[in-house]
Amino acid sequence: MIIELREFTRVEGNGKAEIVVENGEVKDVRLKIVEGPRFFELLTLGRHYYDVPDLEARICAICYLSHSVASVLGIERAFGVEVSEEIQLLRELGLIGELLESHALHLYLLVAPDVFGYPDAIRMATKHGELVKEGLALKAFGNRIRELIGGREIHGINVKPGGFGRYPTVEELENIERESEALLRLARRAVRLFASLEPYGEKAEHFVATDGYLWGDKLISDENGSFHYMERIEERSLVYSFAKQSRYKGEPFFVGALPRLLLKAEMLTPTAKRLFEEHREKLVTGYVSYNNLAQAIELVYALERAGEIAKKLLDKGIKGENVPVEVKEGEGIGYVEAPRGVLIHHYLIDSEGKIAYSNIITPTALNHAMMEASLFKEARELYGEADEGALIQRLEETVRAFDPCISCSVHIVKL
Amino acid sequence: MMDKLKLAVFELTDCGGCALNILFLYEKLFDLLEFYEITEFHMATSLSEGSHYDVALVTGTVSSQRDLALLKEARNHSDYLIALGTCATHGSVQASVEGSIREKLKRVYGDEGNPMRALDSKPVVEYVAVDFALPGCPYDKNEVYQVLIDIAKGIEPVKKDYPVCVECKLNEYECVLVKKGLPCLGPITYGGCNAACIRSGLGCIGCRGPLPGEVNPASEYEILKDLGYDDDYIIRKFKTFARWEP
């Protein structure tokens, strides 16, 4: 018998699950990504490199800047371009804006209704209006940073190989420094709220992240040493899903906020590090539901780091100079931490500056096997014990903990 | 008090941005809720209680049988259907990927079958009649707010009829096409984004699709050729968001 669950709500994109039951026991769970295929890698083939980051941004609205930056990093590495510290800091600031916007959306509008027992944040607002407003304030601030660095709240085109179309002014950076400090109080409150969530889902055994906090040259894992993705991660197609599934040395693994904290705690800002230590015992158990608590701690990190970056740029003075890009044949990989985990853009570029090969692997595809393992565990425990409504609610919560971005996941290709 | 209008948001295959942009209205979203009750919006609510909608917003392209069934459902149960965003109005970038669906599936998934019943991506407007089309990748969120307020008040929403260049001039931005020689599709692209790309000192990428009527794509083509861009580059640029023939 196969129980087909309805499409998930309060997640980005379209997906659902099937529970396979034999002799009254759950034998398997399939996570079905039903969002149509979007073929982004085919879209970029033969395109001039300069237009590619703007096209790749369209993979996802919630994390468009992560896609633009990963694309730009891949292109720059292919050409051997080194950018200034100023450009690197501004890109990091943009990624921080995205982290704030995405985590605030996820925690306050999508997860918090589960905590308080509402179908959505709008209905939750009648009793918990203050909390919803706090979430919106954090989200709006994240979006203002995205607009400043990326050029628009969604699908901006300001991030380019070699630099930016437009650089922020002194006044804009001063505002960021001021506002990030003012909002820190809200983020600390979020940590208290999400620390109350109970553990569910599977315990992850393997964690993967980039070697820097929000981007890097390579990947790291719970084992020693850094690596390029193709050395340890394989992808395979599934007949029941438009998203491919990835495995780390043949095993399910976890990318996202919790893996970042566990692998890179030493890079955190002071208050975030203190909060991590305070909740360390819970977090190290590796339950996927603690990803929500990890996201709340990252809100604190993002606000502190945004202030640090703005101050650093203000102290040094903004130069606003792009680095010249010289076209040559090459290969490059961009690794970025999208809010929901590792994002990989890999290109080969020909001598005319056109894309000859393109591979993109998104966090939701990387987490696909871990999501199935978590759904399987919950379904096995609850099937026959809880009524169907409670079972569905828990399975939805389990998928939601990953903050999946289903739109992103449906065009994973090797050519 | 008057009954609130029932509002639905249906998301077909897309990046999620057009649905997300509604949430980015922030406090204005609560203003809209004075007039509307949201009865279907799966990104934002677990409730799904509608069988009839006064207004349905449909985002994304039709890229699978599932999308097509959902679109028909939305059309059959709504009085006023808005194709929202360039995917829904023109197909946007994902509909510009060339080749048949079988060939594309084979190249990407390494499988000649089509078990998930994928279709070649096409805009909503190619399958059903719509009452209003609001392009943009993404559309300007204030535009959708205005359209919904107009409908609530019984006014037919206004279609814009000017290119991006008009908003560029109103903002007094420097013309990047003439002054910097950047490929800018502003002269032939449907306005309404407040010239977002030119604000960044970069060329308009044409994400709102072609402005129908008096614009002159042939002349834009010649300008870009004179600037030294090759045919392949220009044609791909024209076709990216809206299958636009120069």
Describe the structure.
The complex is a heterodimer of chains A (415) and B (246). Chain A has 415 residues and is α+β, with helices and mostly antiparallel strands. Helix content of chain A is 49%, strand content 18%. Chain A has helices at 40-44, 52-57, 64-79, 85-116, 121-150, 170-194, 229-232, 257-264, 270-283, 291-316, 363-382, 388-401, 406-409; strands spanning 2-4, 15-22, 25-33, 159-160, 163-164, 208-210, 215-216, 219-221, 226-227, 233-238, 241-248, 330-338, 341-349, 355-361. In chain A, strands 7-12-13-14 form a four-stranded antiparallel beta sheet. By secondary structure, chain B is of the alpha/beta class. Chain B is built from eleven helices and seven strands. Chain B has a five-stranded parallel beta sheet with strand order 2-1-3-5-7, sandwiched between helices. The interface between A and B is large, with 69 and 65 residues.
